[in-house]
Design a protein that fits this description.
This protein is mostly helical. The chain has one domain: Winged helix-like DNA-binding domain superfamily/Winged helix DNA-binding domain (Arc Repressor Mutant, subunit A, Orthogonal Bundle). The chain contains six helices and two strands; from the N terminus they run H-H-H-E-E-H-H-H. Helix 1 crosses helix 3, helix 1 crosses helix 4 and helix 2 packs across helix 3. The radius of gyration is 18 Å and the shape is elongated.
Length: 154
Amino acid sequence: MIRLAKLTDYGIALMCHVARAGGGTFSARELAHATHIPLPTVSKLLKMLTAAGMLQSQRGVHGGYSLTIDPALTSLADVVAALEGPISLTECEGESSACAIEGSCKVKPHWHKINIAVRDALDRLSLADMASAQLPSEPTLVRAPGRRPIQETA
C-alpha cells in the first residue's frame, strides 16, 4: 500500500483549515480543537510548516500562526515536500539512495516515470482546491489498451 505519512496527512488538514479561513491567525490550541488533531502533533507540524516558510508565527496576546503563501498558488506537492522532503515513492528516486541493487536495476527508469506522474498529480491540485468545500469533478482515468478496468474493493 502506498500512503502518505500520518503526519503529512495531518499537516495538509491543518493547512487546509488555515487556508479556508482566508488569512486568519490561529493558536495551536485553536487548530487542535478545530481539526481534532492532538495538540502536541499540531505544535510539531506548525514548527515544521513555519520552518518551511508556509506559515509565520506571531507572539503575544493576539499571536498565532498564519499563512505566508497564497493557497491558490501553492500545490499539494509543495505542502507534501515541506513536510516529507522531496516526493519519491522508491529509495532510488531519493537524493541519497541506499538501494543495494540500484546499479543493476532494470525497473528504475519505470519508477522514475511513476514518480513524475505522482508529483505531477500533486502539482495539479492547489491548497485552495483542497480547502474548498466543493469536491473537484471526478477525474477521467486513462488505461493502457488491453487492460481490464480497475475493480474497486469494499
